[in-house]
Each structure stands twice: as C-alpha cells, then as structure tokens.
Amino acid sequence: MKPCVVVSAPSSSTGKTTVVCAILQLLCRRFKNVAAVKVGPDFIDPLFHRYIGGVRSGNIDLFFTEDKRAVDVFGRTTADSDFVVVEGAMGYYDGSSFGSDKASTFDVAKTLGAPVVLVLDVKGKALSLCAEINGFATFREQDGNRSMIRGVVLNRCSKMLYERLAPVIKSECGVEVLGYLEQNPEFEIPSRHLGLMTPESMTGLKEKLAVLCSFAEKTLDIDGIISLANAANYLESARIERKEPPLVKIAVARDEAFCFYYNENLALLEECGAELCFFSPLKNEPVPAGASALYIGGGYPQLFPTELTESRIAAASIKAFARRGCPVFAECGGFLYLQLLGLLHGSFENKKHLVRFGYIELTCTEDNFLCKRGDKIRGHEFHYFDTTENGEAFEAVKPDGRNWKCIQVSAPVDTMRAACCSGKPLFDKNIVAGFPHLYFPSNPDIARNFVNAAIAFDSYKTVAGGCGGCSKCASCPSAGSCKKGGL
User: Fold this and answer.
1) Which of 11, 361, 425, 477 has a 20 to 30 Å separation from 206 between CA atoms?
2) Which of the two residues, 468 and 245, has the higher pLDDT score?
3) How far is CA 82 from the centre of its chain?
4) How far is CA 159 from CA 25, 125, 156, 188, 212, in A?
5) Residues 6 or more apart in contact with residue 143 via CB below 8 angstroms
6) Does the pLDDT of residue 362 top 50, yes or no?
7) Using H for helix, E for strand and C for coil, what is the string for the chain?
8) Is the pLDDT assigned to residue 460 strictly greater than 80?
9) How many Cα atoms occupy the beta-carbon half-sphere of 378 within 13 Å?
10) What is d(CA 330, CA 337) in angstroms, rounded to the nearest whole number?
C-alpha cells in the first residue's frame, strides 16, 4: 500500500484545484515521486498536475470502465510513485447521471478505499458549516463508515476565523481540520467555461504557484494530510513496460492548441507496440519522419486561428500525410482542424453554449480501421463549436438514453491515392474523426487496431509494388500484407 488521499468538495468552484495544487507542491518537497489522478473525464486538471514538478497524472473514471479495470489502470498510472493525490470532480456525490452517485468522487473513493478530504468554502458561514459537513459525511453512511470523509480544509478563510471554526468543527463533526487557505487573488486560478484555463494560457502561473506554496506551507496541515493518506487500502498494480522494440511510429500532435489526451490512451498505444512521436502544429513542425499513423487530440485550436493558419509547413505536412492514405484519428479540436485544412467536408461555428455535453457510449455502425460494426467504446463530449458534418459512423447514447449520430469515417477530400496489389487502397477511408473523446481502456481493442493499422500501412509504404505475402491483417480492408504481422 502507498499513501493516497482523495480531495473533493460539495460542488465545483470551491477552490478544490487550488488546494490540490498547494498540496502537490508541498508533497513534492517530501516525496521523490508524487502522482495525481483526476476523477472523471476532465483533461485540464491533469495538465496542472503535470505542470507542478512533473507530477505524473491521469484519470480514473468508473463510467468509462468497470471497477476492477479502473483500479488496474489507476495502479499502472501511479506505479513507482511514493504518494498519490486524487482530485475529485464536481460535487462529492455527483455521478454520471442525474440522481446517481455512480462514477462520482464518492464512488471512486469507496472503490479505492482511500480517505477523503473535503474542501469547504467558508465565506459567509459559521456553525452552518458543521451541518454541511455532517450532511456530506452521513449521506451514504454504511456500517459506521462516514462516506470516507476523514478531514476538511477550509478555503477563503482568515486565520482568525480558522482559529474559531476549527475546534467547533472537530467537536461537532468528529473529522480532522487540516488547515486553510486565505482568499488571495495572487494565487487564484481563474476559470473558463466549465473547466479551468490550461497552464500554458495563464500569464504568470509559475509565480502564482510559488505564492500559493509559500502561503500553504504556513496554513495547511500537510503532516495531517499525510497521516490520513496512510490509511488508504487500494490494491496496487505494476506498470506494464514493453521491453521489445516498438513495432511502428505514431505521430501525436501535442502543444497548447492540441493538449487534450487521456494519458491512459497514450500508455495503451505504447503497450500495444507504438512509439509515440510528438510534434507541434502550432510551432509549424511537420509530421515526424517515419510515422505511419497520426493522432490529433482536442484542445483549444480556436484560440490560435492565426498561428495555425500561418503554420504552413505543419498544415502541408498533415495534408500530405492524410492524402497518402495514412491512418489518421482526430478528436474534437483535432476534428475541427482537419476541416479547417480542407481534409474533411464541413464548416463549423461557435454556438456559444455547450453542444451535446457529457458521457456517451458509442456503437460503431460503419467498419473502419479502429473498429468493426457493432463494436462499442465509451467516451465524452465537451465542446462549444459544432459543424455541419458531424458524421454518421457511430451512434452515441447518453446514460439517460438520448442519442445521436457522430464521427466521420472518410477519405481525404479531393485526393488520389495509390492502390495496393489487390487493386484497392490499403484503407478505403483512412480518416476517423469526430467530437467524442474516446477512452481506449474501455475497449482496449481500439488501441490495438490503431497500432495494427499503422503497422499495416508501414508495411504497405515500404514494400515495393504494394503488399505481398498477405497476412490478412484485421486492420487492412483490402486484406493486404504486413511484413511485420499483426498484434
């Protein structure tokens, strides 16, 4: 077992992420390897975790995967770490659907067997805080287990108020009071939309975090938090290291414009035999040489329209790559970028409100290099833009039953591609792109198929005259060969 603590709150916008950033900085002074994991599908909080001293971070989500697999993925993400901080999502009991605590922070804490520290905004409150704490602690009380809540941190709280509140909370609620943070604009992390700003888009973040740490070391009880964390009771998993040389290279666009990737997706691609080659379209970098597939994640490309438009080397490289028939997978912002480049049909606009937001289960309705008709995978949508051509290759269903068609499976617009020896292109449609962010561990075959598609194309592009000695790779619609074989 290793120390692990869950940091949650009664609702969003209570300062939870600020408290987590403070705790992580203090822990990095005590422990060599600190890991952080975000509850739910959010991409942005893990970016902040990683910004702090290179803290390893990922996601745990009990909608995406069942408990056993989620704990296994969690264990791999946190392997070799000395301390783990889990940051909650929304309110403590808010789950994947209205009125349910499934996939909530409470559900995760219970599954991991990890103690919870509740962050409370105390502004305008006194004894009412005790009613709030007791309500949260006993709402799902079972066999004397007070919903895993073992301590509280008071946010937007002065020293004088803390000294008066702490003994009252301890007496009335029986939980540890583990310090406080004052309200201070010098270290406040502002919000944008439903999520936080990315670290790279914030001016003076390094200085903000330094100020935060200097205050937190005086007002947070880090020893008390460490003591609580030692009571964690989850089962550890070993990190899977692929010892064989990589089988193929997959290019991954990663910069301030394309920064939304589940770390678990990237790790699974590597486990399946891919070497990930990162590049920045925003910095006008071309697709890395030797890559045989391309992954463009989501992010905020709409914040950098001029920079992306003027990055002509990157744009030309991506267009040439797709037009050669290489397998290309793009999510959300990456999907819009392919439309901007003219590789996909459709135009897009800012709707200025969330469009089709939330958890979804996707069922494939059209064979493609990632999956076959009838295959399922879980994911999430979070976007303010919409397009005239969302695609119809998958059906998305929300937990409440609402559904829609999505994801384009397409060949590049206005392009000619060579055929393999069977007389067909290696992939009739080599682009899979749409708004959903897919979580590969919910169906690991998706990652395997992506790597297989890259292997198949790598063989195709390097064998003179097309494919030969057919291996019947599952990823090749033409049943072309692969000199390396499938996984």
Assistant:
1) 11
2) 245
3) 22
4) 21, 15, 10, 18, 16
5) none
6) yes
7) CCCEEEEECCCCCCCHHHHHHHHHHHHHHHCCCEEEEEECCCCHHHHHHHHCCCCEEEEECCCCCCHHHHHHHHHHHHCCCCEEEEECCCCCCCCCCCCCCCCCHHHHHHHHCCCEEEEEECCCCCCHHHHHHHHHHHCCCECCECCCEEEEEEECCCHHHHHHHHHHHHHHHCCEEEEEECCCCCCCCCEECCEECCHHHCCCHHHHHHHHHHHHHHHECHHHHHHHHCCCCCCCCCCCCCCCCCCEEEEEECCCCEEECCHHHHHHHHHCCEEEEEECCCCCCCCCCCCCCEEECEECHHHCHHHHHHCHHHHHHHHHHHHCCCCEEEECHHHHHHHHCCCCCCCEEECCCCCCCEEEEEEECCCCCCCCCCCEEEEEECCCEEECCCCCCEEEECCCCCEEEECEEECCCCCCCCCCCCCCCCCCCCEEEECCEECHHHCCHHHHHHHHHHHHHHHHHHCCCCCCCCCCCCCCCCCCCCCCCCC
8) no
9) 15
10) 9
Using the structure block, give the residue that is written with the tokens 């619609």. Answer: 477
Q: Any idea which residues carry the catalytic annotation?
A: 332
User: Which residues sit opposite 34 in a β-bridge?
Assistant: 83
Distance CA 18, CA 473 (A): 49
- CA 5 to centroid of chain Cα atoms: 20
pTM: 0.88
Cα angle for residues 428, 391, 342 (degrees, 5° grid)? 70
Check whether 453 has a pLDDT greater than 60. Answer: yes
How do strand 394-397 and strand 403-406 relate by DSSP bridges?
antiparallel
